Amino acid sequence: MGLLDKLFVAVGFKKRKVKIICCGLDNSGKSTIINKLNPKKIDKPVDPTVGFSVEEFEKNQIQMTVFDMSGQGRYRYMWECFYQKLDGIIFVIDSTDDQRLCVARDELYAILRHKDVESTPILILANKQDLDNAISPADLTTALHLYALNAREWNLVATDALKGTGIEDGIRWLSDSVVKKVST
């Protein structure tokens, strides 16, 4: 972004454009979360994502392009095709799926090890926190070994995608982190 573009963004004449990938295992709530963020799709029914879909909307004074990636095993290889020039990552965890928590952790660390996302802020959404069998955010932080990420900018936020609880807080954090990263 050139100096003039930065000035126009700072004054509000031009919206900052960012590219975000939303990934996680299948059935974690990725598409539901993205629909809650997109004013045009708030109450639309959600089908499982096959491959990926692209959503564009404005949030927190930022023009976002969000790539909603399928979490099915046969499509996860596609995630890394979107890592170049990525501004932010949303990784969604199904907090009730303790059987696949180690798979989610492995996929998360595969993303974090990729050279194209070394300095990319990552928002981890601990979804389905409204359910009785949900693993707490503190226990997820331990199970996912997130304290080992001390050199990376990350945040874990408890969410309930169906009600929208926690999603705005998480996106606000990610927006602030992306703006800070892009401005430097």
From TrEMBL:
UniProt keyword Cytoplasm present: no
Annotated keywords: GTP-binding, Magnesium, Metal-binding, Nucleotide-binding
Residue positions binding Mg(2+): S31, T49
Tagged with keyword Chloroplast: no
Pfam families: Arf
Positions annotated to bind GTP: G24, L25, D26, N27, S28, G29, K30, S31, G71, N127, K128, Q129, D130
Molecular function via GO: GTP binding; GTPase activity; metal ion binding
SMART domains: ARF, SAR
NCBIfam families, alphabetized: small_GTP
Family that this chain belongs to: Belongs to the small GTPase superfamily. Arf family.
This protein's name: ADP-ribosylation factor-like protein
Originating organism: Acrasis kona
